């Protein structure tokens, strides 16, 4: 079976399990015994959020390594070739945490987070070196008319006529080589992927909670060609919880109107 050709969204999806906090397991925190009754009840209502996440950094390093190695200069790789100067095994856990925070900030900026717009949270990449390399392609030629083929047709390596001309004029005549430390190369590659076609399929979970719960910031990829209502939540549980919270808030507002 031939290997699958990765698209831009496929490459970015290699990092999403890590950025969504799925590479690890949750360890529940003990409930404090000296809290007031109201605080303890609030803690119990948000029990699924009262956890500490243990991260499997070995899986994180494997995800980063697969992401970087997938940039081979093809169209799905934004015509970028990654040449990091260090090994992913050399990255410490603190460096991986900072890298994950930078990537999350980049995605949040793209989703329009108001506190991260403009010059409030710029992404500064130190040590990135760029070099343009030619990617030779064959110019299409005109095929002479013969008795068997009386038409004069433009012939290219991948098609005939208008298709041959489009392929010749398409992007990719040059490939950009990106060199530098991984903590700077990976955000640079991810930022270029966000500019590619098809990134409209990248969505953030629509669940927005009130205290004592927390918002869901998980990012997922939808199928833009699928008919019907687009997916809004990362999981069925998030959609169910959102509906329960909306029902609870409506009942609170109803009780408030009755008291007034």
Number of strands: 9
Give the low-confidence spans.
46-50
Q: What is the count of helical runs?
A: 8
Q: Mean of the pLDDT scores?
A: 79
| Tally of distinct domains | 2
Separation, N- and C-terminal Cα atoms? 69 Å
Strand order, largest beta sheet = 3-7-4
Characterize the main sheet: 3 strands, mixed
Tell me the series of helices and strands, N- to C-terminal. HHEHEHEHEEEHEHEEH
The gyration radius over C-alpha positions equals 25 Å
The share of residues in helices is 25-40%
Overall, the morphology is extended
Structural class: alpha+beta
Percentage of β-strand residues: 15-25%
Produce a short descriptive summary.
Helix content is 36%, strand content 15%.
Report on the architecture of this protein.
The protein has 260 residues and is of the alpha+beta class. The chain has 2 domains: 8-134 and 172-201, no CATH class; 136-171, no CATH class. Helix content is 36%, strand content 15%. The strands form 4 sheets. A 3-stranded mixed beta sheet has the order 3-7-4, covered by helices on one side. It has a two-stranded antiparallel ribbon with strand order 1-2. Strands 5-6 form a two-stranded antiparallel ribbon. The relative contact order is 0.14.
